[in-house]
Prior knowledge:
Blueprint: E1 5-10, H1 15-31, E2 40-44, E3 48-53, H2 56-72, E4 80-88, E5 92-99, H3 105-118, E6 123-127, E7 130-135, H4 138-151, E8 160-162
Antiparallel strand pairs: 1-7, 1-8, 2-3, 3-5, 4-5, 6-7
Helix pairs in contact: 1-2
Amino acid sequence: MAGEVSFDVVSDFDRQELVNALDQVRREVGTRYDFKNVTVDLQLGKDEITLLTDDEYRAAAVKDLVESKAIRRGLSLKIFDWGKVEPAGGNKVRQVIKLRRGLPEDLAKRISKLIRDDFPKCHAQIQGDAVRVSSKSKDELQKVIARLREEGEGYPVALQFQNYR
């Protein structure tokens, strides 16, 4: 008799890939001519990145660099929540970039409701900042993953599917 199989719907990113992408940005800023004699300081905190640079144009250029390097490293652009560019001391500007991690409660409820409505043989449970989906049929779970992938484009966070067993 087959038991229940399950997987988790989460929103997370590989922190080491983010560190590598930021290192690549720092290296490229150091070699580019348009950033010559310009201050560009990227500080990675626990759940945010702080950018300190000379003006808004440089901040926009660094944003493009960060996004392009993140895409090349396999990171979703939905993990970044770009804050406003604010003046900092000494003719500099500062931008705080929040990093999104985990499913917000309202999104977890929407995903759970979608699974309950469209897949009656599957059970969805909200567990902290993840949703556990379980069923007796692996085929049903594959259908749920396919449906969430197509629906996931409209969500404000990137969805990953983990612990499939």
